[in-house]
Specification:
Elements: E1 2-8, H1 9-28, H2 33-43, E2 44-46, E3 52-54, E4 56-60, H3 63-76, E5 86-88, H4 97-121, E6 126-134, H5 139-154, E7 159-166, H6 176-187, E8 193-198, H7 199-209, H8 217-232, H9 248-256, E9 264-265, H10 275-278, H11 285-297, E10 313-315, E11 321-323, H12 359-363, H13 369-387
Parallel strand pairs: 1-4, 1-6, 4-5, 6-7, 7-8, 8-9
Antiparallel strand pairs: 2-3, 10-11
Length: 390
Protein backbone atom coordinates (compact mmCIF):
# COMPACT_ATOMS: atom_id res chain seq x y z
CA UNK A 1 0.00 0.00 0.00
CA UNK A 2 1.18 3.51 -0.80
CA UNK A 3 1.47 6.78 1.10
CA UNK A 4 0.83 10.10 -0.61
CA UNK A 5 2.91 12.84 1.00
CA UNK A 6 1.78 16.46 0.94
CA UNK A 7 4.67 18.85 1.64
CA UNK A 8 3.53 22.28 2.80
CA UNK A 9 5.55 25.46 3.22
CA UNK A 10 9.32 25.85 3.51
CA UNK A 11 9.80 23.41 6.38
CA UNK A 12 7.43 20.76 5.04
CA UNK A 13 9.15 20.74 1.65
CA UNK A 14 12.65 20.64 3.09
CA UNK A 15 11.88 17.83 5.54
CA UNK A 16 10.00 15.94 2.81
CA UNK A 17 12.96 16.11 0.43
CA UNK A 18 15.27 14.80 3.18
CA UNK A 19 12.80 12.03 3.96
CA UNK A 20 12.71 10.70 0.40
CA UNK A 21 16.52 10.78 0.34
CA UNK A 22 16.64 8.71 3.53
CA UNK A 23 14.07 6.24 2.22
CA UNK A 24 15.79 5.84 -1.14
CA UNK A 25 19.22 5.31 0.45
CA UNK A 26 17.84 2.78 2.91
CA UNK A 27 15.99 0.80 0.25
CA UNK A 28 19.02 0.55 -2.02
CA UNK A 29 21.82 -0.22 0.45
CA UNK A 30 22.07 -3.99 0.44
CA UNK A 31 18.53 -4.62 1.59
CA UNK A 32 16.60 -7.71 0.61
CA UNK A 33 14.58 -7.63 -2.61
CA UNK A 34 11.21 -7.95 -0.85
CA UNK A 35 12.07 -5.03 1.45
CA UNK A 36 13.16 -2.82 -1.48
CA UNK A 37 10.04 -3.63 -3.47
CA UNK A 38 7.77 -2.91 -0.51
CA UNK A 39 9.53 0.39 0.20
CA UNK A 40 9.42 1.48 -3.45
CA UNK A 41 5.71 0.72 -3.78
CA UNK A 42 5.03 2.61 -0.57
CA UNK A 43 6.78 5.87 -1.46
CA UNK A 44 7.45 5.95 -5.22
CA UNK A 45 5.87 5.09 -8.53
CA UNK A 46 8.03 3.91 -11.40
CA UNK A 47 7.93 5.38 -14.90
CA UNK A 48 8.19 3.36 -18.11
CA UNK A 49 11.86 4.37 -18.20
CA UNK A 50 12.47 2.97 -14.71
CA UNK A 51 12.70 6.34 -12.93
CA UNK A 52 11.51 6.51 -9.33
CA UNK A 53 9.08 9.40 -8.82
CA UNK A 54 8.05 10.36 -5.29
CA UNK A 55 4.37 10.03 -4.40
CA UNK A 56 4.36 13.63 -3.23
CA UNK A 57 2.67 16.97 -3.78
CA UNK A 58 4.73 20.10 -3.08
CA UNK A 59 2.89 23.24 -1.98
CA UNK A 60 4.23 26.68 -1.09
CA UNK A 61 3.10 30.22 -1.71
CA UNK A 62 6.60 31.08 -2.93
CA UNK A 63 8.45 29.04 -5.61
CA UNK A 64 12.04 29.21 -4.30
CA UNK A 65 12.01 26.27 -1.87
CA UNK A 66 10.01 24.03 -4.21
CA UNK A 67 12.41 24.68 -7.08
CA UNK A 68 15.37 23.93 -4.83
CA UNK A 69 13.81 20.69 -3.54
CA UNK A 70 12.99 19.47 -7.04
CA UNK A 71 16.46 20.33 -8.28
CA UNK A 72 18.20 18.50 -5.41
CA UNK A 73 16.04 15.42 -5.93
CA UNK A 74 16.79 15.31 -9.67
CA UNK A 75 20.53 15.74 -9.08
CA UNK A 76 20.57 12.75 -6.70
CA UNK A 77 20.22 10.48 -9.73
CA UNK A 78 18.17 8.00 -7.69
CA UNK A 79 14.71 9.58 -7.58
CA UNK A 80 12.86 12.76 -8.49
CA UNK A 81 9.60 14.61 -7.97
CA UNK A 82 6.86 14.63 -10.59
CA UNK A 83 7.21 17.46 -13.11
CA UNK A 84 3.66 18.71 -12.49
CA UNK A 85 3.13 17.64 -8.85
CA UNK A 86 3.76 21.05 -7.31
CA UNK A 87 1.93 24.32 -6.73
CA UNK A 88 3.32 27.73 -5.84
CA UNK A 89 2.51 31.43 -6.08
CA UNK A 90 4.57 34.61 -5.96
CA UNK A 91 3.36 35.88 -2.60
CA UNK A 92 3.85 34.19 0.78
CA UNK A 93 1.51 34.06 3.77
CA UNK A 94 3.49 36.56 5.84
CA UNK A 95 3.87 34.22 8.83
CA UNK A 96 0.15 34.65 9.45
CA UNK A 97 -2.03 31.56 10.00
CA UNK A 98 -5.19 33.50 9.13
CA UNK A 99 -3.74 34.64 5.79
CA UNK A 100 -2.90 31.05 4.89
CA UNK A 101 -6.14 29.50 6.16
CA UNK A 102 -8.66 32.17 5.17
CA UNK A 103 -7.11 33.62 1.99
CA UNK A 104 -4.58 31.38 0.23
CA UNK A 105 -6.27 28.13 1.23
CA UNK A 106 -9.73 28.85 -0.23
CA UNK A 107 -8.24 30.63 -3.23
CA UNK A 108 -6.05 27.72 -4.31
CA UNK A 109 -7.76 24.77 -2.65
CA UNK A 110 -9.19 23.25 -5.83
CA UNK A 111 -5.81 23.28 -7.58
CA UNK A 112 -4.18 21.51 -4.64
CA UNK A 113 -7.00 18.97 -4.41
CA UNK A 114 -6.50 18.11 -8.09
CA UNK A 115 -2.77 17.49 -7.57
CA UNK A 116 -3.45 15.19 -4.62
CA UNK A 117 -6.17 13.37 -6.56
CA UNK A 118 -3.70 12.58 -9.35
CA UNK A 119 -1.23 11.08 -6.89
CA UNK A 120 -3.94 9.06 -5.16
CA UNK A 121 -5.11 7.64 -8.50
CA UNK A 122 -1.55 6.47 -9.23
CA UNK A 123 -1.71 4.22 -6.16
CA UNK A 124 -2.97 0.68 -6.59
CA UNK A 125 -3.89 0.74 -2.92
CA UNK A 126 -3.88 3.88 -0.79
CA UNK A 127 -2.51 3.50 2.75
CA UNK A 128 -3.25 7.12 3.58
CA UNK A 129 -2.02 10.69 3.31
CA UNK A 130 0.77 12.31 5.31
CA UNK A 131 0.83 16.12 5.47
CA UNK A 132 4.21 17.58 6.48
CA UNK A 133 4.28 21.12 7.81
CA UNK A 134 5.68 23.58 10.30
CA UNK A 135 3.35 25.34 12.72
CA UNK A 136 5.34 28.56 13.18
CA UNK A 137 4.84 30.33 9.84
CA UNK A 138 1.80 31.05 7.72
CA UNK A 139 1.78 28.68 4.74
CA UNK A 140 2.67 25.44 6.50
CA UNK A 141 0.32 26.13 9.37
CA UNK A 142 -2.55 28.02 7.73
CA UNK A 143 -2.64 26.54 4.23
CA UNK A 144 -1.66 23.17 5.72
CA UNK A 145 -4.65 23.22 8.03
CA UNK A 146 -7.01 24.22 5.20
CA UNK A 147 -5.63 21.50 2.91
CA UNK A 148 -6.02 18.91 5.68
CA UNK A 149 -9.63 19.98 6.07
CA UNK A 150 -10.24 19.55 2.34
CA UNK A 151 -8.57 16.14 2.29
CA UNK A 152 -10.67 14.97 5.22
CA UNK A 153 -13.83 15.91 3.30
CA UNK A 154 -12.66 14.23 0.07
CA UNK A 155 -11.17 11.10 1.65
CA UNK A 156 -13.28 10.54 4.78
CA UNK A 157 -12.28 6.89 5.12
CA UNK A 158 -8.54 7.28 4.51
CA UNK A 159 -5.94 7.67 7.24
CA UNK A 160 -4.54 11.18 7.52
CA UNK A 161 -1.36 11.75 9.53
CA UNK A 162 -0.02 15.26 10.12
CA UNK A 163 3.70 15.57 10.79
CA UNK A 164 4.31 18.86 12.61
CA UNK A 165 7.64 20.57 13.20
CA UNK A 166 7.27 22.51 16.46
CA UNK A 167 9.16 25.83 16.61
CA UNK A 168 12.08 26.70 18.87
CA UNK A 169 11.05 28.19 22.18
CA UNK A 170 13.00 31.32 21.20
CA UNK A 171 11.98 31.35 17.54
CA UNK A 172 12.30 34.20 15.08
CA UNK A 173 8.57 34.43 14.30
CA UNK A 174 7.04 36.65 16.96
CA UNK A 175 3.52 35.28 16.37
CA UNK A 176 4.56 31.62 16.26
CA UNK A 177 2.60 30.83 19.42
CA UNK A 178 -0.62 32.14 17.85
CA UNK A 179 0.02 30.12 14.68
CA UNK A 180 0.85 26.98 16.67
CA UNK A 181 -2.26 27.15 18.83
CA UNK A 182 -4.59 27.70 15.86
CA UNK A 183 -2.96 24.89 13.87
CA UNK A 184 -3.05 22.28 16.62
CA UNK A 185 -6.61 23.12 17.68
CA UNK A 186 -7.97 22.72 14.15
CA UNK A 187 -5.93 19.65 13.23
CA UNK A 188 -7.09 17.85 16.37
CA UNK A 189 -10.56 17.76 14.85
CA UNK A 190 -9.37 16.63 11.41
CA UNK A 191 -6.37 14.33 11.66
CA UNK A 192 -6.24 10.67 12.72
CA UNK A 193 -2.85 11.21 14.37
CA UNK A 194 -0.40 14.09 14.83
CA UNK A 195 3.31 13.31 14.95
CA UNK A 196 5.24 16.16 16.56
CA UNK A 197 8.96 16.92 16.28
CA UNK A 198 10.22 19.67 18.59
CA UNK A 199 13.04 21.76 17.14
CA UNK A 200 14.61 22.26 20.58
CA UNK A 201 14.84 18.50 21.17
CA UNK A 202 16.17 17.77 17.67
CA UNK A 203 18.71 20.58 18.09
CA UNK A 204 20.04 18.94 21.28
CA UNK A 205 20.36 15.62 19.41
CA UNK A 206 22.45 17.36 16.74
CA UNK A 207 24.69 19.02 19.31
CA UNK A 208 25.10 16.32 21.97
CA UNK A 209 24.78 13.06 20.04
CA UNK A 210 25.83 13.92 16.49
CA UNK A 211 28.56 16.37 17.62
CA UNK A 212 27.63 18.97 15.00
CA UNK A 213 29.39 22.24 15.82
CA UNK A 214 27.45 24.66 13.63
CA UNK A 215 23.91 23.31 13.39
CA UNK A 216 21.87 24.24 10.32
CA UNK A 217 18.24 23.68 9.43
CA UNK A 218 19.45 20.97 7.07
CA UNK A 219 20.95 19.10 10.04
CA UNK A 220 17.71 19.41 12.02
CA UNK A 221 15.63 18.32 9.02
CA UNK A 222 17.94 15.34 8.50
CA UNK A 223 17.30 14.05 12.03
CA UNK A 224 13.54 14.46 11.60
CA UNK A 225 13.66 12.64 8.27
CA UNK A 226 15.71 9.79 9.76
CA UNK A 227 13.19 9.35 12.58
CA UNK A 228 10.26 9.41 10.15
CA UNK A 229 11.93 6.85 7.92
CA UNK A 230 12.52 4.53 10.86
CA UNK A 231 8.77 4.56 11.56
CA UNK A 232 7.37 4.51 8.02
CA UNK A 233 9.69 2.07 6.25
CA UNK A 234 8.47 -1.56 5.90
CA UNK A 235 8.71 -3.65 9.06
CA UNK A 236 7.86 -7.21 10.03
CA UNK A 237 5.25 -7.63 12.71
CA UNK A 238 4.72 -10.47 15.15
CA UNK A 239 3.06 -13.40 13.42
CA UNK A 240 3.50 -11.86 9.97
CA UNK A 241 5.44 -14.91 8.67
CA UNK A 242 7.91 -12.75 6.76
CA UNK A 243 5.33 -10.42 5.19
CA UNK A 244 5.98 -6.70 5.65
CA UNK A 245 3.32 -4.52 7.21
CA UNK A 246 0.81 -3.36 4.62
CA UNK A 247 -0.42 -0.06 6.03
CA UNK A 248 2.07 1.88 8.16
CA UNK A 249 -0.33 4.76 8.82
CA UNK A 250 -3.07 2.34 9.80
CA UNK A 251 -0.68 0.52 12.13
CA UNK A 252 0.36 3.76 13.83
CA UNK A 253 -3.20 5.01 14.25
CA UNK A 254 -4.69 1.74 15.45
CA UNK A 255 -1.83 1.07 17.88
CA UNK A 256 -1.05 4.53 19.24
CA UNK A 257 -4.06 6.79 18.63
CA UNK A 258 -6.41 4.36 20.35
CA UNK A 259 -8.84 7.08 21.51
CA UNK A 260 -9.97 10.17 19.54
CA UNK A 261 -8.96 12.45 22.40
CA UNK A 262 -5.35 11.23 22.35
CA UNK A 263 -3.74 11.81 18.94
CA UNK A 264 -0.33 13.29 19.74
CA UNK A 265 2.61 11.03 18.85
CA UNK A 266 6.36 11.35 19.34
CA UNK A 267 9.36 9.35 18.13
CA UNK A 268 12.39 8.25 20.12
CA UNK A 269 15.30 6.65 18.25
CA UNK A 270 18.33 4.82 19.60
CA UNK A 271 21.26 4.82 18.93
CA UNK A 272 21.86 8.21 17.35
CA UNK A 273 25.42 9.14 16.49
CA UNK A 274 27.60 10.70 13.83
CA UNK A 275 27.98 8.47 10.78
CA UNK A 276 31.77 8.64 11.15
CA UNK A 277 31.50 6.94 14.55
CA UNK A 278 29.36 3.98 13.50
CA UNK A 279 32.28 1.92 12.21
CA UNK A 280 33.96 2.10 15.64
CA UNK A 281 30.87 1.24 17.66
CA UNK A 282 29.41 -2.05 18.78
CA UNK A 283 25.86 -2.54 19.96
CA UNK A 284 23.89 -5.44 21.34
CA UNK A 285 20.13 -5.68 21.22
CA UNK A 286 19.75 -6.35 24.98
CA UNK A 287 21.77 -3.22 25.85
CA UNK A 288 19.85 -1.04 23.40
CA UNK A 289 16.51 -2.30 24.67
CA UNK A 290 17.47 -1.67 28.30
CA UNK A 291 18.40 1.91 27.52
CA UNK A 292 15.30 2.45 25.38
CA UNK A 293 13.10 1.05 28.13
CA UNK A 294 14.54 3.44 30.70
CA UNK A 295 14.18 6.34 28.27
CA UNK A 296 10.51 5.45 28.01
CA UNK A 297 10.08 5.11 31.76
CA UNK A 298 11.79 8.41 32.56
CA UNK A 299 10.28 10.27 29.59
CA UNK A 300 13.73 11.04 28.14
CA UNK A 301 14.13 11.97 24.47
CA UNK A 302 17.85 11.12 24.19
CA UNK A 303 19.97 8.24 25.43
CA UNK A 304 22.47 10.72 26.88
CA UNK A 305 21.57 11.72 30.41
CA UNK A 306 19.07 8.94 31.10
CA UNK A 307 17.67 9.18 34.64
CA UNK A 308 18.13 5.66 35.98
CA UNK A 309 16.50 6.62 39.29
CA UNK A 310 12.98 6.77 37.83
CA UNK A 311 11.10 3.52 38.31
CA UNK A 312 7.75 2.24 37.04
CA UNK A 313 4.84 2.66 39.45
CA UNK A 314 4.46 -0.19 41.91
CA UNK A 315 0.87 -1.31 42.45
CA UNK A 316 -0.14 -2.03 46.05
CA UNK A 317 -3.11 -3.94 47.42
CA UNK A 318 -6.27 -1.95 46.86
CA UNK A 319 -5.19 -0.76 43.44
CA UNK A 320 -3.11 2.29 44.43
CA UNK A 321 0.06 3.01 42.46
CA UNK A 322 3.23 4.73 43.52
CA UNK A 323 6.01 5.96 41.25
CA UNK A 324 9.49 5.47 42.62
CA UNK A 325 11.59 8.47 41.64
CA UNK A 326 14.49 10.31 43.21
CA UNK A 327 14.23 13.82 41.84
CA UNK A 328 13.66 12.69 38.22
CA UNK A 329 11.19 14.13 35.70
CA UNK A 330 8.64 11.49 36.60
CA UNK A 331 7.22 8.36 35.10
CA UNK A 332 6.10 8.42 31.46
CA UNK A 333 2.30 8.25 31.38
CA UNK A 334 1.77 7.73 27.64
CA UNK A 335 -1.25 5.63 26.69
CA UNK A 336 0.41 3.37 24.13
CA UNK A 337 3.85 2.59 22.71
CA UNK A 338 5.05 0.87 19.56
CA UNK A 339 8.52 -0.72 19.36
CA UNK A 340 10.12 -1.01 15.90
CA UNK A 341 13.45 -2.82 15.58
CA UNK A 342 15.69 -2.45 12.52
CA UNK A 343 19.10 -3.90 11.80
CA UNK A 344 21.13 -7.11 11.64
CA UNK A 345 20.08 -10.11 13.72
CA UNK A 346 16.93 -8.32 14.79
CA UNK A 347 15.33 -11.59 15.82
CA UNK A 348 17.99 -12.04 18.50
CA UNK A 349 16.35 -9.12 20.30
CA UNK A 350 13.24 -11.16 20.89
CA UNK A 351 13.06 -12.99 24.19
CA UNK A 352 13.35 -16.71 23.49
CA UNK A 353 12.49 -19.70 25.67
CA UNK A 354 16.16 -20.19 26.59
CA UNK A 355 16.43 -16.58 27.81
CA UNK A 356 13.31 -17.03 29.97
CA UNK A 357 14.26 -20.38 31.44
CA UNK A 358 12.91 -20.96 34.95
CA UNK A 359 11.12 -17.57 34.99
CA UNK A 360 7.81 -19.35 35.49
CA UNK A 361 9.14 -20.70 38.80
CA UNK A 362 9.24 -17.11 40.09
CA UNK A 363 6.07 -15.87 38.44
CA UNK A 364 3.95 -18.43 40.28
CA UNK A 365 5.02 -16.85 43.58
CA UNK A 366 4.19 -13.29 42.46
CA UNK A 367 7.52 -12.07 40.98
CA UNK A 368 7.00 -10.69 37.46
CA UNK A 369 9.35 -10.16 34.54
CA UNK A 370 9.06 -6.45 35.33
CA UNK A 371 10.66 -7.12 38.73
CA UNK A 372 13.63 -8.77 37.02
CA UNK A 373 14.04 -5.83 34.65
CA UNK A 374 13.87 -3.40 37.59
CA UNK A 375 16.59 -5.37 39.35
CA UNK A 376 18.81 -5.34 36.27
CA UNK A 377 18.33 -1.59 35.98
CA UNK A 378 19.16 -1.03 39.66
CA UNK A 379 22.37 -3.04 39.41
CA UNK A 380 23.39 -1.20 36.25
CA UNK A 381 23.11 2.03 38.22
CA UNK A 382 25.27 0.55 41.03
CA UNK A 383 27.91 -0.50 38.49
CA UNK A 384 27.82 2.97 36.95
CA UNK A 385 28.28 4.60 40.36
CA UNK A 386 31.28 2.45 41.23
CA UNK A 387 32.79 2.99 37.78
CA UNK A 388 32.86 6.72 38.41
CA UNK A 389 35.19 6.19 41.38
CA UNK A 390 38.03 5.11 39.08
Amino acid sequence: MSIVTVQLGQCGNQVGQELFDVICNDAQEGQRKAYCESSTERFFHETTHGDLVARAVLIDMEPKVINHSMSRAAKSGRWRYGETSHFSQKQGSGNNWANGYCVHGPRHGEAVEELVRREVERCDRLAGIMAMMSVAGGTGSGVGTYVTQCLRDIYPNSFILNQLTWPYGTGEVIVQNYNSVLTLAHLYQLSDAILVHENDTVHRICAQLLNIKHISFSDVNGVIAHQLGSVLQPALTAGSHGVYSRNPLGDLVSTLACHPEYKLLSVCTIPQMASSSIAYSTFSWPALLKHLRQMLISNTKMEEGIDWQVRPPSVHPGGTARTRSLGGPGFNNSLANLLILRGKDVYSAETGQKDRAYIHQYIKFGISEEDFLDSFTSLEQVISSYSQLC
